[in-house]
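Table 4 source record.
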Amino acid sequence: MEYWNVGMWKIRLRRPGFNGWGALFIIVARISLKNQSVNRFRFPIFQYSIFPPFHCFIGSLSMTRQSVLILFKVFSTIPCFLSCGIFRQVDLLGTRLPGAVALAFHRMRLPGKRLVFTFAALIPLAAMASGCSMPPSVTSLDDILERQGIHNQVRYDYRCTAGAHRGASEEHRENTLAALKAADQNSKYAFIEFDVQYSKDKRIVVYHDKRMLRLDGSLRAIGNATFAELSAITGGQIVAYDEVIGMLNKKLNIEIKSQGDEREDERLVDEVIADILIRKRGNDILISSISDDVIRYVNRKYPDIPTGQVFWLTSSTYLHFDGLTKKLYEDISATQADYLMLHVANLLNIEDLLEFKPKGKTIVFWDFGDKMYIVHKDISDRLWGDSGWRTFINFLQYKLVSGFRRFTSGK
């Protein structure tokens, strides 16, 4: 039996290969608990990770005394997996670690080929110990259901990514420059949705409705007024596409508002996508529409641009028959849309929507407020433009953090 004094604790080492891991944990706990008068602390230790790709797991970390006590129990099981003769000496040349931490790392006996797996084993501990927070744009499907007043006995624990519907439309008038810029600067939105259509003089304007009655009290149709006339009616609040696209840095969902003329819709699609490609932002864009013809056209002519087909209320919203739900997926398969974009009323049918969802098709919910949510049921469900690796990292991070929170809360 070997003993090793670190700080104020004496560690009993049951296996020689475990000493480095025990030391590292004790150092973590030592730092976290050094101020007994504080209930929650900063947790700086993992900023010294020497495997940079996993930094996104760690972020800004904090730790509670309860977390430390739980981690003591969890940590006692780790030697069974990590210390059965798999460690060899590894040199950490070029790494700048505090003395005690460097000593802990040097006492681990890691073969170079297994460095990835070793740090992968540390990640769950880091997540559980720190209770690390998710980005503000991440929520859970269960929380969304609860906010919608849907009390489901089943907990899905699926990650959801929030976007800004028509910009930050609860703080500002929808689809205006102020709403779009505010959404671009707010970390609670991972992407921004806005609507485009032609004015009479073929200026691409950012406006949702076909007519101006709801927002401006006018029966004038957007397509029957010039941009100057539209600006006068809205008091200068209507904005042209070319005035905003260069100001937005987040991923964008551009919805094509069909005015019923197929050729004009195609021309609008061509003009928007041509501009996007000139700006080299093809990976940042999703094109959506309620029009089947628009979605088919985009997928036929621009197969690398992801598409989303929009639905409001359908027969399956209130009649939860398997055949009706399956038909939704048959419809978007026929147009080759990547995203099924449903009003939140369809959350009433969430069980069937999840059960029959094919891989490669992703569900998005939107409401008449400022929110849209991408539901990440599996690894194929991603925010457009994200790599498979990044999607996997986000998936694993969410599972670790949500699992730890359930564990500590006893749920």
